[in-house]
Write a structure and sequence with these properties.
By secondary structure, this protein is of the alpha/beta class. It has a domain of 184 residues: 5-stranded Propeller (L-arginine/glycine Amidinotransferase, Chain A). Helix content is 34%, strand content 18%. A three-stranded mixed β-sheet has the order 2-1-15. A three-stranded mixed β-sheet has the order 3-4-5, with helices on both faces. Helix 7 links the parallel strand 7 and strand 8. Helix 2 packs antiparallel against helix 15 and helix 15 packs antiparallel against helix 16. It is globular. The chain starts with a strand and ends in an 11-residue tail after the last helix. The structure holds N~2~-(3-carboxypropanoyl)-L-arginine. N~2~-(3-carboxypropanoyl)-L-arginine binds next to loops.
């Protein structure tokens, strides 16, 4: 067993952050459709969270935003001419597709990939499978740049394997780590990997939501587990409760979060609660860990409050000096039922002894809380030393990124602003400068 830590890679909010109502089934995205965004504030809010957690001794890193708009997409569907002409034509003929091409959704890096750390995998390397996100048009092309970024950061093939996205078909709908939870005794020892799916493509009678889409399929989860070499008794495939998907729980990380040997979950999270816990206990026993559960009853926090406050989209972190910290969005403090629950939680003598709340409103208004904003990567010392160091959050990097955001980002984007060709030019200049700050030359050197 080696010493290992969990690194949280937060997505740096991109300069085109806007509210385009693109995510059917995500109630925040629908509610804020066409409202005015503030990309500068969004990026600064995310950076403030990264800085605060790094200052507390947590291992924190950053993933770069993606190049926007996606000119390749716009040209592939028949918009021609100069970049400015492509934007003008798309704005007039297909404004929703222009919004897709401009989406800054890659900020939610919990959807970037599924990660299995080296103690769990057959070949002893850390495996990443980039998520295809094919349920939503505006997210279905993220995988190309996500793969480039992960390959640049985790380039050392002695330690890391980056698998490309699964085939882009509904049967393999894959949303990455948002539907994957690792439970363990210690980060460096073998863990239990729980894959949560929303529907089964080839079992038409299996329960499925009726109103909103289930984005993750069992077939995709099984494929990722196979690619990572984690199949076996320590790997569980659990069905999400379809009724909660219909209430806006579009990923498992909106209704449950786990860390170490602790699972914090809502009573209605899983299709079969008792069966899920029994399987988890058995699998945990096999890795010499005892499962601890914190169950939130529907009478205490109804699903609607869990969704609006994003209580479960919190980060459950092991503190460097022991004990666990729950990082929640400020909305949890403002919801009476959730606030009451949280007060009781931290005084109950259970594993979670501290709360930290952050103002992440810009991201929250598109359905992205603290947990959505980060990709967890457990790394031992040799692996941490082998990754690209330029993305690790330090006070110096924080200051440079804040200055960069202040220089390049707008403080408002209204829907019509996406038609302004100047916005694309500003983003290009910003990203060109970012490659120097993160020491990732060539990151955006492709057709854009
Ligand atoms: O895919 N929102 C994202 C939010 C992702 C949250 N991720 C996790 N729960 N892990 C989504 O629905 C909204 C874009 C818009 O409407 O402009 C959006 O893509």
């Amino acid at each position: 067993m080696t010493t290992a830590r969990e690194y949280n890679f937060d997505g740096l909010v991109g300069p085109s952050h806007n509210y385009a109502g693109l995510s059917f089934g995500n109630v925040a995205s629908a509610r804020n459709f066409k409202s005015v965004s503030n990309p500068k504030q969004a990026a600064l809010q995310g950076l403030a969270k990264m800085r605060a957690l790094a200052a507390r001794g947590f291992a924190q890193a950053v993933l770069p935003p993606q190049s926007r708009p996606n000119f390749g997409l716009l040209r592939d569907i028949g918009f021609t001419g100069s970049d400015a002409a492509v934007i003008a034509r798309a704005a007039s003929k297909a404004p929703m597709i222009l919004a897709c091409a401009y989406s800054a959704a890659p900020m939610w890096t919990a959807n970037a990939a599924t990660v299995s750390p080296s103690p769990d995998t057959a070949d002893g390397r850390t495996h990443f499978t980039v998520a295809n996100l094919n349920n939503k048009m505006h997210r279905s092309f993220e995988h190309v740049e996500t793969e480039r970024a992960l390959r640049a950061i985790f380039a050392d093939e002695r330690h890391f394997v980056v698998h490309g996205a699964l085939p882009p078909t509904p049967a393999f709908g894959d949303e990455g780590a948002a539907n994957h939870t690792r439970l363990c005794a210690t980060y460096g020892s073998p863990g239990v990997e729980m894959f949560v799916y929303g529907r089964v493509e080839f079992e038409p009678d299996a329960p499925a939501p009726k109103h909103f889409p289930a984005r993750q399929t069992l077939e995709a989860s099984q494929a990722v587990a196979r690619l990572h070499g984690v199949s076996g008794s320590r790997t569980l495939f659990i069905q999400q409760n379809p009724e909660t998907i219909d209430q806006g729980v579009f990923h498992n990380d909106v209704i449950a979060v786990g860390n170490g040997n602790v699972l914090f979950y809502h009573q209605q999270a899983f299709a079969d609660e008792a069966g899920t816990l029994a399987k988890l206990r058995e699998a945990m026993g096999a890795v010499n860990a005892e499962l601890r559960t914190i169950r939130v009853d529907a009478t205490e926090v109804p699903v609607a409050d869990a969704v609006s406050s994003y209580l479960f989209n919190s980060q459950l972190l092991s503190k460097p000096d022991g004990g666990m910290l729950l990082v929640v969005p400020q909305e949890c403090r403002e919801n009476p039922a959730v606030a009451t629950f949280l007060d009781r939680l931290v005084t109950s003598g259970g594993p979670i002894g501290e709360l930290l709340s952050f103002d992440l409103r810009q991201s929250m208004r598109n359905g992205g809380g603290p947990a959505c904003l980060r990709l967890r990567v457990v790394l031992n010392e040799a692996e941490a030393a082998a990754m690209h160091p330029g993305v690790i959050m330090t006070e110096h990097l924080y200051s440079r990124l804040v200055a960069w955001v202040e220089k390049h980002y707008r403080d408002r984007i209204a829907p019509d602003d996406l038609a302004d060709p100047q916005l694309a030019a500003e983003i290009r200049a910003a990203l060109d400068e970012l490659t120097g700050i993160l020491q990732l030359p060539g990151l955006y050197d492709f057709q854009r």
